Amino acid sequence: MPKAGIIYNDVKPVAGRVAIELKDELTSAGWDVCMTSGVGGILGYSTPESSVCHTPIDGLTPPGFDSEMKFAIVLGGDGTVLAASRQVAPCGIPLLAVNTGHMGFLTEIYLNQLPAALEKVMAGEYEIEERVMLLVKVFRGDSLLWEALCLNEMVLHREPLTSMCHFEIAIGRHAPVDIAADGVIVSTPTGSTAYSLSAGGPVVTPGVPALQLVPICPHSLASRALVFADTEIVTILPANPTRLVMVVDGNAGCYVLPEDRVHIERSQYSARFIRLQSPEFFRILREKLGWGLPHIAKPTSVELP
């Protein structure tokens, strides 16, 4: 019996309702179905009293989800897709992301397209697009305090965000650099259209084997976004007397103290997305962000009487 999964946003009633209907439909078609909430992929935050919040990466996989699963359907917005990718990446399960949220930049289809899409997916008529993920770790000495998989970006900043701080950053074997800014972002190509873009970073197409470092509101004209090979390991040392806050994909994070170090590298796991047609990144940029739309000519000036 083939096996499928359903991951849904349990905060949205429509996602929960569709998840139950979808499970019944797949079961009737002879599929073994496992269903779970995307909340299991949200790691939560450590507190000022306890900066250690270590959840092993492979401990997030929901019961019943394994490498035998043919695919999983995600019902929610981009936040649910980010959480789901963290849940299933160690098993290599392909995800069909269905938009029940707002932006839906990471989703493949809308709810009204689900019936036709489901037929294609059950028949295996799709492509798989792999997206790079990061492995983010926080160390204190030789002790691992915290780790997470990251599909979009890692952000490190001070509380409050408007307070400038210093970061000593080493990329691969290159000489460390000092950056003075409100914070720093290390982003994947997938995350280049998220917070990184808002902070002034470039858009990087998904197939480019690169990461980027983007200072948030840097204090120097010389500190600008940097694109580098995704084979390089990034080490960040907070050159600050006070603690910092690290946030991964907007839904997980921990405190980073002055004696800690942040270690970032390309993960051995990747996010695998089901595409029902050949991926067309520029179309998504145009539809979601308005990139490349033709300019509308201004009306001819008319002299007033």
What does this structure look like?
There is one protein chain. The chain has 305 residues and is of the alpha/beta class. It has 2 domains: 3-131 and 270-289, Probable inorganic polyphosphate/atp-NAD kinase, domain 1 (Rossmann fold); 134-268, Tumour Suppressor Smad4 (Sandwich), CATH 2.60.200. It has 5 helices and 18 strands. The strands form 3 sheets. It has a 7-stranded mixed β-sheet with strand order 3-17-16-9-12-13-14, with no helix packed on it. The protein has a 6-stranded antiparallel β-sheet with strand order 8-7-18-15-10-11, covered by helices on one side. Helix 1 links the parallel strand 1 and strand 2. The longest helix has 16 residues, at 13-28. The radius of gyration is 21 Å and the shape is globular.
Spatial strand sequence of the major β-sheet: 3-17-16-9-12-13-14
The amount of helix comes to 10-25%
Which class of secondary structure composition applies to the elements?
A: alpha/beta
How many strands, which pairing sense, and closed or not: the largest β-sheet? Answer: 7 strands, mixed
Secondary-structure element pattern, one letter each: EHEEEHEEHEEEEEEHEEEEEEH
Count of alpha and pi helical runs: 5
Overall, the morphology is globular
What is the CATH top level name of the largest domain?
Alpha Beta
Count of discrete structural domains: 2
What CATH architecture of the largest domain would you give?
3-Layer(aba) Sandwich
Task: State the CATH topology of the largest domain.
Answer: Rossmann fold
Overall radius of gyration: 21 Å
Count of beta strands: 18
